[in-house]
Amino acid sequence: MEDFKLMKGNEAIAHAAIRCGADGYFGYPITPQSEVMETLMDLKPWETTGMVVLQAESEVAAINMVYGGAGCGKKVMTSSSSPGMSLKQEGISYIACAELPCLIVNVMRGGPGLGTIQPSQADYFQSVKGGGHGDYRLIVLAPSTVQEMADFVGLGFDLAFKYQNPAMILADGIVGQMMEKVVLPPFKPRRTEEEVRQECPWGTTGKLPNRKRNIITSLALEAEVMENINLKLQAKYREIEKNEVRFEAHHCEDADYVLVAFGSIARICEKAMEMAREEGYKVGVLRPITLFPFPTNPIKELSQKVKGFLTVEMSAGQMVEDVRLTVNGAVPVEFYGRMGGIVPSAEEILAALKEKLIK
Amino acid sequence: MTTKDIINPANLVYSKTKLMTENPMHYCPGCSHGVVHKLIAEVIEEMDIQDKTIGVAPVGCAVFAYNYIDIDWQEAAHGRAPALATAIKRLQPDKFVFTYQGDGDLAAIGTAETIHACNRGENIAIFFVNNAIYGMTGGQMAPTTLEGMKTATCPMGRNTELNGYPLRISNLLAELDGTCYVTRQSVQKMASIVRAKKAIRKAFENSMAGKGTSVVEFVSTCNSGWKMSPHDSNKWMEENMFPVYPLGDLKDTEKK
Of A170, A194, A218, which closes a domain? Predict the structure, then answer.
């Protein structure tokens, strides 16, 4: 029998980090994700696996510690919530350009500004479209359960190292704070120094006589050189789009209407879907698991046979722009959302679906 | 006797350290950076720690420091070098890790990272070149610009009412329990170069001995930014910078 544990999503992140052989965590407290560092400090992985856990003086410092650690080829991560993520954007842009693998967790709360500590999904643009300066992309995973919070730590690191690109777990405050049963991943030992040198020959692990010095940088003053760096990044992003799309479809086969939602809102949409089906409406739910790369093809295919989409988000409507771009006018794409930390109910979603699409 | 006879190993009294690369330096002639780079490279060679040393370059004139010293490097965002160095050292405790920073990088935009790395007593060496001006961006006011000193953003001279006072950040860092060695050096004369090199070596040794953070400030010149000849810059530094930034050890826990 599997070993179920009951814990918060934030706690699951911490447990999973240790279990997947992370080398370092650097963070700064902010609600609603402080349990990540609290749990790590409680578990004291430096005594068991040797993982470094450090409370930084700011989110800015924390993300730059991640840069330093990632530059050594180490498996390093940070976590924060929306206002803290704004501070990290500088570092994320540098990390993306220097092509360093790392894991960033954002447990979103309502903004803008200091906003609220209640859950939100309004950092979609920031996470998926850039956030920092320059043309770059993160691999963005959107968990909807505590189980996925645990699973996406290992997956995020795997994708980050596969593509030498920062990966992000974009969770909303609900997934971070709610308790659910979870099966934690099995323990995986941290890589040895030799394994790090082999897996990351580009890392600043000390210049041995048999190789040139390694330089981690995001600087190229010559325009041609900088454009080539950009072209290389763009080619990598196209590769990620080709290989790494993940999504979940519920009852989309016979659906007339499809609800598109990510994170915890997708689960509320499932409830709305059940209620709609009880009333005789053929409704499905499409849940993007990767927000970048966005599940363009499945939505495009659905747009050929459904009567319309309703995108539901805890924001003023951000992901809906990508759904509209994908559907490209084939059928109506409507939006329903709540802001400021309000979680839409299944009843509200069903009412919005009837009002905006079924009529 | 011909030149050929003179240039032979037996007569060699000086050679460039092997750790300095052949890349042409972008620094202005007369700039202190070149000397400080050379001293760091010499110490790394003499300590035989090339394979164990990781440098963190700043944003500022020394942004390309990684082009000149043949070790592994990371290039940080402006002011963030101590945060990078913190992680590099904690994740690879057997390495010698240093940051190389200017006054704007260390004492303005990176003040928080500097103070907190020092306050945690990170076992790193911080090499701090203070020439009282932003050289790379064209000579603007730095936190360490002297009172009355003219720069592109204080063309009438630094006015303390408007701009505050020259920041003696090394004195501040010496107050922190996490630092073990804070010293102020210069590199304009042979004698000062010898002293500065000793300070660099000591900072590296401290970092491996686990004593805490070492900070070596180099009171430096920027003849382009100051709009003076290298010779006049050195003189101006001695007459104007040294009274505000007096040379010597500010803290050495070994000497307690």
Answer: A194
| Cβ atoms B189, B102 nearer than 8 A | no
pLDDT per residue over A31-79, tens digit each? 999 999 999 999 999 999 999 999 999 999 999 999 999 999 999 999 9
Q: What are the E-state strand segments in chain A?
A: 4-8, 24-27, 52-55, 76-80, 102-108, 139-141, 166-172, 179-183, 215-216, 247-250, 257-260, 283-288, 290-292, 308-313, 333-337
CB contact under 8 A, A213 and B91: no
The model carries a pTM of: 0.97
Per the structure, the count of domains in chain A is 2
Exposed e or buried b per residue across A175-194, where buried means at least 16 C-beta atoms within 10 angstroms of its C-beta: bbbbebebebbeeeebbeee
A56 Cα to chain B: minimum distance (Å)? 8
Contact A207 B95 (CB under 8 A): no
Q: What is the mean pLDDT of residues B249-255?
A: 94
Interface test with A, best of B52, B66, B91 (most A CBs within 10 A): B91
In a domain, A271, yes or no: yes
Name chain A contacts of B76, Cβ cutoff 8 Å: 64, 67-68
Domain limits for position A296: 248-358
**Model pLDDT for residues B54-111, shown as the tens digit of each residue:** 999 999 999 999 999 999 999 999 999 999 999 999 999 999 999 999 999 999 999 9
Q: How many CB pairs under 8 A join A and B?
A: 122
Q: Does B72 touch chain A (CB under 8 A)?
A: yes
Going by pLDDT thresholds of 50, 70 and 90, the confidence category of residue A1 is low
CA distance A262 to A288: 6
A90 to chain B, any CB pair closer than 8 A? The answer is yes
Q: Is A69 within 8 Å of chain B by CB?
A: yes
pLDDT (tens digit, 9 = 90+) per residue, B99-136? 999 999 999 999 999 999 999 999 999 999 999 999 99
Q: Verify that A163 and A74 share a domain, yes or no.
A: yes
Residues within 8 A of A (CB atoms), B 211-230 only:
none
Q: Are residues A66 and A180 in the same domain?
A: yes
Residue A148 and residue A53 share a domain:
yes
- Structural domain contains residue A186: yes
The whole-number average pLDDT for the span B159-182 is 98
Q: Look up the CATH number of the domain holding residue A266.
A: 3.40.50.920
Residue B88 near chain A (CB below 8 Å): yes
CB B114 within 8 Å of CB B106? yes
A62: nearest CA in chain B?
B83
Third-level CATH fold of B27-255: Rossmann fold (3.40.50)
ipTM over 0.85: yes
Residues A255 and A121 grouped into a single domain: no
